[in-house]
Amino acid sequence: MGQDKLTVGLVYGGKSGEHEVSLSTAFAVMNAFDFDKYEIIPFYITKQGTWRIGGKLATPFSDASELKLEDGEGTQAALNAVFSRLYGNEETAVDIMFPLLHGTFGEDGTIQGLFEMADVPYVGTGVLASAAGMDKGVMKKLFAQVDLPQCKYCYFNRSQWERSSHELLQRMEDELGYPCFVKPANLGSSVGISKARDAEELRSSIETALRFDNKIIVEEFVDAREVEVSVLGNDEPMASVPGEIVSSSEYYDYAAKYTDGQSEMLIPAPVEPDTADQLRELAITAFKAIEGNGITRADFFIRRSDSAILINEVNTMPGFTPYSMYPLLWRETGVSYRELLDRMIDLGIERHNRKQALVYENEA
């Protein structure tokens, strides 16, 4: 720890199809930190999964290319810093880890489990919520248990597809119809998602999605407005004003999310006050359904035919790029970017301290 500053380990990159998204998020977050309160240690994970660690930063990087830490030390030094609390040193290398890893090995509970083993506080949801929030099939089952309204879907894995693709296709045609959307169950940022308009496209879309994941979700098409709500907290979470996505694409795809000009955000969303209240309430219900901590963003459909609200998913590591909905919704609600980062760090430390108070051995 610095003399009067918290040392934050910023972790980004990762062995994931969302590697570049993570870099964009990390650069934005690093440049938003209050360096009068924090020192930053950058941890870069390459696309191959190796780690690099840089020195303590008193100012942010001026160029995103610096994030790759070409002159940084390697995996051993990086993990030594993460696990420094277990070495009995008087001074630990980091006070809290701040993962900005999107997708596989980042927001699926994997890195969170590493931090738990290292006994180091970290920002964001824990292992259980991260894993549940990453796997759309598991997430949907948890939503069903608390009666959250959802669109119709089909959930299957690679072996089921290889064993009985014809039967699955017939079931999806009967239950979902066309068009429908095919998604890898464990990726975000719309990576690997396709719209299928007939049986040939459906089969092709599933084969494409199986390149990214071994489990697949196929959902019915819903003619709907897309609305999002940010959630922040631990035991008593708060929800932001809702915001609406108006995309120029057929659906809110990767380019629309991360390339300026491809989508429009309406903040706050033009909905009735009662609808806004309902969206916030459902967002908190979804947060609790996955046993969330720290942050989530809940994504909803408002069906055009009857104004019914359907939950699509929760994202446990929403983007923090300049075009990201999560921080913009909080800004509209009255929480600035810097205040948001401060609160996320406070929540991570609060959760860690509470866990430290538990007893892990039989005292009898």
TrEMBL record:
List ligand-binding residues for Mg(2+) 1: 299, 313
Known pathway: Cell wall biogenesis; peptidoglycan biosynthesis; Glycan biosynthesis
Q: State the Gene Ontology terms under molecular function.
A: ATP binding; D-alanine-D-alanine ligase activity; metal ion binding
User: For ATP, which residues are the binding ones?
Assistant: 136, 181-183, 189-190, 219-226, 312-313
Give residues annotated as binding Mg(2+) 2. 313, 315
Active-site residues are 18, 189, 324
What Pfam families does the record tag this protein with?
A: Dala_Dala_lig_C, Dala_Dala_lig_N
Q: Where in the cell is it found?
A: Cytoplasm
Record's cofactor remark: Binds 2 magnesium or manganese ions per subunit.
This entry carries the following GO cellular component terms, namely: cytosol
EC assignment: the record states 6.3.2.4
Q: Provide the catalytic activity annotation.
A: 2 D-alanine + ATP = D-alanyl-D-alanine + ADP + phosphate + H(+)
Q: Which Gene3D superfamilies match?
A: 3.40.50.20, ATP-grasp fold, A domain, ATP-grasp fold, B domain
Transmembrane portions of the chain: none
- Required co-factors: Mn(2+); Mg(2+)
Q: What residues does the ATP-grasp domain cover?
A: 140-346
Keywords (A to Z) from UniProt:
ATP-binding, Cell shape, Cell wall biogenesis/degradation, Cytoplasm, Ligase, Magnesium, Manganese, Metal-binding, Nucleotide-binding, Peptidoglycan synthesis
Kindly list any coiled-coil regions of this protein. Answer: none
The free-text function statement in the UniProt record for this protein reads: Cell wall formation.
- Family from the record: Belongs to the D-alanine--D-alanine ligase family.
Name of the featured protein:
D-alanine--D-alanine ligase
Q: Record the organism.
A: Paenibacillus uliginis N3/975
